[in-house]
Every structure is written in C-alpha cells, then in structure tokens.
Amino acid sequence: MIITKTPFRVSFCGGGSDIPKFYREHGGCVLSTSINRYMYISIHPYFDEEKTALKYSRTEIVNDISEIKHTIFKEVLGDMNLKGIEITSTADVPSGTGLGSSSTFTVGLLNTIYCYKGKYVSKGRIAEEACDVEINKLGNPIGKQDQYAAAFGGLNFIEFHKDDTVSVSPIIMEPETSQALQDNLIILYTGLTHDANKILAEQKNNISQKDKTDNLIHMCGLAHAMKKSLENNDLSDFGAILDEGWKKKRELASGITDPRIDEMYECAMANGASGGKLLGAGGGGFLLFYCEKYRQKHLLEALNLRRFPCAFEHDGTSVVYIGDKYW
C-alpha cells in the first residue's frame, strides 16, 4: 500500500488571472499558500486483478476503465493503463468549499500512481499534468493556480506566462512575520457550498469584456504589491489589499457573492477585520479575514460562524507511507 497526502490551498490575491484565456494575452500571477489540511489517497493491489475498485464519496467497482463514473479517476487511470488496483481518497474538508479540492485530488492521484509504478516525477511535471487533465482533457473552465499550489506547497508567488509556462517563487520573509501573518488570519465556514465550474465558466466568458480584463490586470498589480510588502516584512497593508482584491473579484461574475455573503463580510469589517475575501471561485465555502489577534474575539462573537483552524505548510504533495510489496 502507498499513501500520499496533498495540501489544500488558500489564495490571497490574483485569482482569475490564472485562466489561459487571460494570461496568454496579459500574463497572470497569484499569491497563495498551501495549508496543513490534506487530501489523502491510498493505492493497493485489488484481490481481483481484472477489476478496479475506487472509494471516494461513493464506491465504484468496475471491470473496465471506461465504466468509471468519476471523471478524473477515469481520465488518469485510462492514461496510465492501470487496473487490478484499489484506490481510496479521503479529505480534511469537503468539496465545493473554495480550497481547490478538485485540483488537490488530481495532483494527489497522479503522485500516488507514479509512486505505485516506481517512477519519480518532479512536482512541476505533476502540476502540469494535472492542469492537462482538468483543463485540456476534461474541459473544466478553471485556471492553473490550484494544481501548482498543491504540488509545490508553501507560500508562493506563482506567475503564469504568455507561453503557458509557470514560475513558482517562494515568498521569503522573517519567521516572526510569517507567524504574525498566520496569527492574524481567520478562516470561517459560511455553511454554503458552490458549483465552482458554473461560476468560473461565466468568469471565463466575461474575460473578453474590457472592464473584466481591467479588473484582472488590477488584481495582478495587487498581487505584486502584496508580494513586495511581505518580502519587506510589512503586514500593515495586507488587509487593505485583500479588501481591494475582493471588491474587484466580485465584479468578475454574477455568482461570486450573494446578499448572505455580503452581510457576513460587512459584519466582519465592522467588527475588527481590515480586509478579507471569499476563498475559491465564490458562491460559498470559506471566508478569509485579516484581523489583528487582539480584535478576533469580538469578530468571532459577532459572526458566530465555525472557525477553520489551519497553518501554512511547505511540503506540497508527498508520500507518507510505503508498505511492503507482496505482489
């Protein structure tokens, strides 16, 4: 048996500029971090060598890969020409909550299968193959940031170049600054879930509109400003940049926010937060706020939402267990 763990991500600034339709013309960038909440995937030989067993939110046992209902499993296993195996996935958070679960799963699955086949593959290759599966083969209207965040891990400035290449640059700052940043971040569960693909499809279609393109260009500028501040160990404008980025993001598509989310956001801003955003494509999931530690009790009492504790992590997708090989 082989077990891998792959981190979820929190995106701070620049989301949306990682969509090919945008970055191929303008270039894009995102500042994000992976967190210590994971997707776990295990692989093991199946007793019946002619069948394949898959266990996620449902169980599939099939005779042929073409019978698989789960689209990512079907695409990856078909490409790898694998059968006679059992794969199980479990996660610290549910899908549809804005932490990049689909791409985290794809990255983790690729890493698990390559390890099972005895092949070493770089994190960059895993990330790009995950993008190929989700964007090119399955046609999902998503960008590239989640795959690279899950594969590489860490707090990074990720650039998406016009020629489709991607650069991942770690943010270097003092340990005290990193800890202060983590202490001042609050992630809260809204209790709402969303259909990311529906929102992203509208956002992708809107990119050709000049005002939407201008918004994304401005958001990239905010990501650069946030990077500069962090590298200067300056957190004084972090909340304000989050807030400005959120105001720009919510204009990209109609489903990104709704009156309930707006009310939660306004309540947080009135009770100590200096900025925030909804994580992921929008429509639900987790709200992120920057709020200095001494003000957090007041904010938490005012919102009365479930807090999601987490910390930055730096490993990316990794193998955590390799059992004896008896086959």
Keywords for this structure?
40% helix, 13 strands, 24% strand, single chain, alpha+beta, nine-stranded mixed sheet, Ribosomal Protein S5, domain 2, Alpha-Beta Plaits, 327 residues, four-stranded antiparallel sheet, 2 domains
Can you walk me through this structure?
By secondary structure, the protein is an alpha+beta fold. The chain folds into two domains: 2-172 and 313-322, Ribosomal Protein S5, domain 2, CATH 3.30.230.10; 175-311, Alpha-Beta Plaits (2-Layer Sandwich), CATH 3.30.70.890. 40% of the residues lie in helices and 24% in strands. The chain has eleven helices and 13 strands. The strands form two sheets. Strands 1, 2, 3, 4, 5, 6, 7, 12 and 13 form a nine-stranded mixed beta sheet that branches. The chain has a four-stranded antiparallel beta sheet with strand order 9-10-8-11. A hairpin with a 7-residue loop joins strand 9 and strand 10 (286-290). The longest helix has 22 residues, at 210-231. The protein is globular and about 60 Å long. The termini are close together. The mean pLDDT is 93.
Mind sketching the topology for me?
Layout: E1 2-13, H1 20-26, E2 28-45, E3 52-55, E4 59-62, H2 71-80, E5 85-91, H3 101-116, H4 123-137, H5 145-152, E6 155-160, E7 166-170, H6 175-183, E8 185-189, H7 196-206, H8 210-231, H9 238-249, H10 259-270, E9 275-278, E10 286-290, H11 296-303, E11 306-307, E12 312-313, E13 318-322
Parallel strand pairs: 3-5
Antiparallel strand pairs: 1-2, 1-13, 2-5, 2-6, 2-12, 3-4, 6-7, 8-10, 8-11, 9-10
Helix pairs in contact: 2-3, 3-4, 3-5, 4-5, 8-9, 10-11
